[in-house]
Design brief:
3 helices, about 25% helix
Length: about 110
């Protein structure tokens, strides 16, 4: 089982999901995150084959200040985007908490 911390939810339409990214990035105030901390967008799509993954990731990344670097393997900040059929949710996980908590996979906690 996995538990996903999602701060904002909407329908899983491409434009709505990009808007989710804009909302949470504006709300988060990236200036409080060290510019030396790389980020990644972790996007998982379940049950909605009509979504264009590349457009959604690029759309959300366009709202992240340009001085932040992307590192998909060693990200300290993760923008977590999940779709479940017709619903989507997003959150920002800082300070390496996504990997520290084993990507929120409850079966890995012992």
């Amino acid at each position: 089982f996995k538990l996903y911390p999602l701060d904002i939810t909407s329908f899983s339409r491409e434009e709505d999901m990009i808007n989710l990214g804009k909302q949470i990035i504006e709300r988060e105030n990236f200036n409080q995150i060290s510019k030396s901390d790389p980020y990644a967008i972790n996007y998982k799509n379940r049950g909605n084959k009509r979504l264009n993954r590349e457009n959604i990731i690029k759309g959300i990344a366009s709202f992240v200040p340009k001085e932040y670097k992307v590192d998909l393997k060693n990200a300290k900040t993760v923008i977590l985007l999940q779709t479940f059929g017709r619903n989507a949710g997003i959150s920002i996980l800082k300070n390496g908490s996504f990997d520290k908590h084993k990507q929120f996979n409850l079966s890995n906690f012992k």
